[in-house]
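INFO batch 0412 | record 1 of 1 | parsing
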Amino acid sequence: MTLPAVVKNIVIEQVGKYIRVYGYSGMLVTWDGHDGVYVFMPRNHRNKTCGLCGNNNQIPDDDFVTLVGQRVTSVARFANSWKMPAVQGSVCQTVPDNRSPCMRLTPKELEQVCL
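INFO prediction complete | emitting tokens
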């Protein structure tokens, strides 16, 4: 895709080394091109989110809640709980509990994860 682009009123643009996506209900997602994703949600979304971005209630200690509502301390267990069924044949690999999902992947591991 050539940037900038607009897809169904969603703007995708490159700003410096970052990719920014915005245009949906005031939300802004910025990606550093590697493993850093930053999500900004406006105030009207407080206490109305769930999943990998937490519940947006301004209390970071209670953000690691699994898909089935269990509070966990393991980043890997939390992230693995939110994996969704395969879409178009792509399947996300399970991150071992002793490895942070945020660690850099080796080239071989990168081939195995969903993009």
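INFO post-check: The longest strand covers residues 18-24.
INFO record closed
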